[in-house]
Fold:
Amino acid sequence: MRQKIVAEARAWIGTPYRHQASARGIGCDCLGLVLGVWRALYGELPEEVPPYAPDWAEAGGRETLADAAGRHLRPCDGAEIAAGDLLIFRWRPHVPAKHLAIATAPGRMIHAHDGAEVAEVAITPFWRRKIAYRFSFPGAP
Structure:
């Protein structure tokens, strides 16, 4: 299952960034990438995703992404990142985590970010310090 997750995420590489979108090859944001991978592997989304503004996390002040992930994914134990893990990043202390990526290896990830296309990049020390949560998709031990 982990290899299927990685393969599907890699199929999104090159998709332009588009806020609130989730269409492979057309546009997505970081959440849209994860939702698209979910749909490809599991079918229908387990819950409705409401519209959100770019500053949704700061405005709401809640761990919305981590809470949603906790309802449908399994928290990972240990510090070792595995291919297929969902990574959730916190930009600054004391603000909700609001960026998502899918690990493709212990030191690599795929993500979408504003002003760029979906890309596979190294999990540099900068990124590693920002990881707030790590989850496994269903069926990925």
Q: What stands out?
A: The chain has a mean pLDDT of 94. Residues 2-47+61-136 form a domain with the endopeptidase fold (from Nostoc punctiforme) fold (CATH 3.90.1720.10). The beta strands are 22-23, 27-28, 74-75, 86-89, 99-105, 108-111, 119-122, 131-136.
